Amino acid sequence: MSLAAGPGRGGGGASAAQLPDELQLVVDKHVAYIQSLDTRRDELEYHLTEHLRISGIYWGLTALHLLGQPEALPREGLLDFVFSCLHENGGFGAAPGHDPHMLYTCSSVQILAMTDGFAELEKNLPDGKMKIAKYIASLQQPNGTFAGDQWGETDSRFLFCGLLALSLLGMLPNQRPNEPPIIDLTAATDHIKACQNFDGAFGVAPGAESHSGQVYTCVGALTLAGELDSYLGEEGKDRLGAWLSERQLPSGGLNGRPEKLVDVCYSWWVMTSMAMIDRVHWIDQKKLTSFILQCQDPDQGGLADRPGDMVDVFHTCFGIAGLSLLRYPGLVEVDPAYCMSKPLVDKFLGRK
Ligand code: GRG
């Protein structure tokens, strides 16, 4: 059975209603699960996850967009929360009172893009877009990479988040060829290239073990910089694609690196990297689809890392995003670099 191109995706494949029970995505349950998350303030887990709250909102909102329910969370409440995390220097913390950090600044910019909130940003912080861009630029290091915050830890995740957020702000040097560059994009991509290993994959820093999460950040950064094709070429894509395709285990699920357990989130990190190098067909898509669907809680909604485990919003987002890449019927198409609805990103960036 083909799961390709369902309604709204321009193809003639199966619709969700034609699929057998074990291949049904419980869309309404997932929407209700995400809507319920902010009402669980008396649960320990709510407080234990405060340090990543704004990313949690990005994960939930992205999942809702891909499920075709972009308005299932109240826009005003989302914007109020985002602005309560904003600092004078243009950075965002994970929650009110938390220090600004690149990861949460990226999630905040993504939420602002998804909620069309940039006009409100200017009311909360005059010249807000430029202040956010300058905060991001201030974290670039002499060797081209980016720190996560003022304390200086570096990681290819932070570099990618910097480029992604700048791109949504329209402030990447390749988006403004006639303006003085706000960051050194060549130094940034040189650093990413130095993170590539002999196996064709990428690590968190030069010389670090290949990991598919970092493959996403490095391939995504090269995509945003417009350098992916010229740098990798077909041979580089084949070598990286071979390493990524070895991430699939007999259960159909994917792991992040050799000898590790499968986890539904790698359905995103691995598959979107495959999408950016045009090698999605190197994975058994039917088996992966089935694995992702087994990670659902069919009663309460949400997805877990593995079948039978407790669900959470992180795995819910990346499982659904993986299904979107696999063209599960009825889901909105996801943009591989931005991990947001592709129609939204296309419109937002004025892409055809
Ligand atoms: C815009 C989608 C988006 C992301 C922003 C934060 C970020 C950029 C990317 C994270 C990439 C990454 C490193 C993902 C991997 C996450 C993960 C499950 C790490 C677990 O690592 P280990 O070593 O697990 O605990 P393994 O599976 O290797 O045993």
TrEMBL record:
Any one GO BP annotation for this protein: protein localization to membrane
Taxonomy of the source species: Eukaryota, Fungi, Dikarya, Ascomycota, Pezizomycotina
Job of this protein: Catalyzes the transfer of a geranylgeranyl moiety from geranylgeranyl diphosphate to both cysteines of proteins with the C-terminal sequence -XXCC, -XCXC and -CCXX.
Assembly and interaction partners: Heterodimer of an alpha and a beta subunit.
Cofactor(s) named in the record: Zn(2+)
One cellular-component annotation, GO: Rab-protein geranylgeranyltransferase complex
Family, per entry: Belongs to the protein prenyltransferase subunit beta family.
InterPro entries: PGGT1B-like (IPR045089), Prenyltrans (IPR001330), Ptb1 (IPR026873), Terpenoid_cyclase/PrenylTrfase (IPR008930)
Record EC number: 2.5.1.60
Keywords: Metal-binding, Prenyltransferase, Repeat, Transferase, Zinc
Protein name as it appears in the record: Geranylgeranyl transferase type-2 subunit beta
